[in-house]
Each structure stands twice: as C-alpha cells, then as structure tokens.
Amino acid sequence: MGATEWEWDETLFAGAAVHYGVGRMPYPASLAAALRDELGLDGTGRLLDVGCGPGSLTLLLAPLFATTVGVDADADMLAEARRQAEEAGTPAIEWRHLRGEDLPADLGVFDVVSFAQSFHWMNQPLVARRVRDMVAPGGVWVHIGATTHRGAATDAPLPRPSPPWERIDALVARYLGPVRRAGQGLLPNGTGGVEEAVMREAGYRGPGRIVIDEGRVVERGVDEVVAAVLSLSSSAPHLFAERLPAFVTDLRRLLGEAAFRGRFAERVVPIEAVVWRP
C-alpha cells in the first residue's frame, strides 16, 4: 500500500471503541493456554500489547505476566480498555496513548510483544525495527491473526441463519461509497500483506505458528451484529456523520428480516498466532 493511497490519521476508529465489547467475538481462553504452553509463560516477565484497542487480547494474556503494558493510538479505545480492566479486576495494567511508530518510548524491554489485528495499520518496517530492541533476550514477537467481527463462511448447517454479510456490505457501500473508507482517506487495495518479508528484513527468525480452531458455533443477536459493523474502521460511526441514525435504522431493518426470532448463528473463524524471534 503506497503512502499516496492512504495515510493513518487519528479518526481511523473514531466512535468504534464502545461497540467492540458487544460486536466483537472474544478471543478464546484456549489461545492464552496455547501461548502459555508454547512460550513457557508462568506469571513472570513483561508483556507489551501494541495496538491494544479496548484490551481484548491484553486482558486475556495479562494473568500470564507480572507486568503488562497496552499501547494504542486511539484515546477512546484506551478509555474502554481501562473500563474493561476495572470490571475484570485487573487494574494494574499500564495503558499508554502511543502509536506503534512512537516506540520504544522509554518503556523498556519485554518478554513478549504482541500485535492483535493491528500491525497492518502501522508503518511495518519502522515498527518492526524499533520493537526488535524492545524484545528481551529469549523473548518473542507474537502476531495474532483473526477475524472477530464476523464468522467463517460455511456450507455446514447452523442452528440459525448467518448474518447477511454481503447485503450488509452493500448497505455500507450505499451510504459510504464503493471504495473502502479508512479514517479521512480511502483504502482501495486494503492494508499491506507483506509481514513475513518485513520481519525477515528487520532481523527476526521464524515464524512459528499456532492455530486455534475450535469450530465453535456462536449465536448472536441483532444488537451484536449492528455493533460488529460499527466497530470496523471501514464503517466506523464518524464516517456516516449526520446519516448515522438512518444507516442504523436501515441496518436493523435488514437484520430483522434475515434473523430467526432476532438471532443469528456463525462458526468462529480460526485464530493464528505467528511467533517471531529476534
């Protein structure tokens, strides 16, 4: 993705933070267990979660470390992360309002540096180089690849209809135009997909891969699917401006017609943890 196509700005997820907890499917406990077993995590050491958002991964992994720091570029995301941490009884996590490009920011070194669905929004070569010196000897970089706002496409029978994602996407396009929106710009070709080359160029070894595929089927209501749509950068609330209430009304009507007694079912998408070592 060339800089002439899109540049990051602070409105990327504006208004989306409050929708994450409702609209995004949580990471499973089995992900934490798999990382614990693979990396020998025992409640000591330090974790840095970069692009932590509302703390979805941070809170899951924090019990495996003595010290946890979450950083994000969106102040509303961090406010939601603090709220979630208080509710979960883990207020000791340190939250810092930083972009990945601002690192190392005198944060020190960490045994694990994690990126959960966030690295693709960053200047990947720059962040990979800067984080490399933040990984302690014997430590690792972990990238979590997942789709948590929607389920996997499947021909297998489900107990309820799946959300009509193609029609949802068409509705978003009717309001926002056919080219994907992202912050104040457009993202016609998606985000960069060259992580492996970037990591090797920055001096990392690997990768090792851990795949979590529980095949779980989850049921979701209309409110959850609406929140999932509004949690996305491409359909974040600010993009609709004064048309947001009309969009939500149309979206609810579409979902109400497609649901069975207000409910949908989806099969959870497999999660991949990619492990790199400096």
How would you briefly describe this protein structure?
34% of the residues lie in helices and 22% in strands. With 278 residues, the chain is an alpha/beta fold.
Write up what this structure looks like:
The strands form three sheets. The protein has a seven-stranded mixed beta sheet with strand order 3-2-1-4-5-11-8, with helices on both faces. A two-stranded antiparallel sheet has the order 6-7. With 278 residues, it is an alpha/beta fold. The longest helix is centred in the C-terminal third of the chain and has 15 residues, at 244-258. The chain is 34% helix and 22% strand. Strand 4 (110-116), helix 5 and strand 5 form a beta-alpha-beta unit.
SSE blueprint and pairings:
Layout: H1 17-23, H2 29-39, E1 46-50, H3 56-61, E2 67-72, H4 75-88, E3 94-97, E4 110-116, H5 124-132, E5 135-145, H6 165-176, E6 181-182, E7 185-186, H7 195-201, E8 205-212, E9 217-221, H8 222-230, H9 237-240, H10 244-258, E10 263-267, E11 271-277
Parallel strand pairs: 1-2, 1-4, 2-3, 4-5
Antiparallel strand pairs: 5-11, 6-7, 8-11, 9-10
Helix pairs in contact: 1-8, 6-10, 8-10
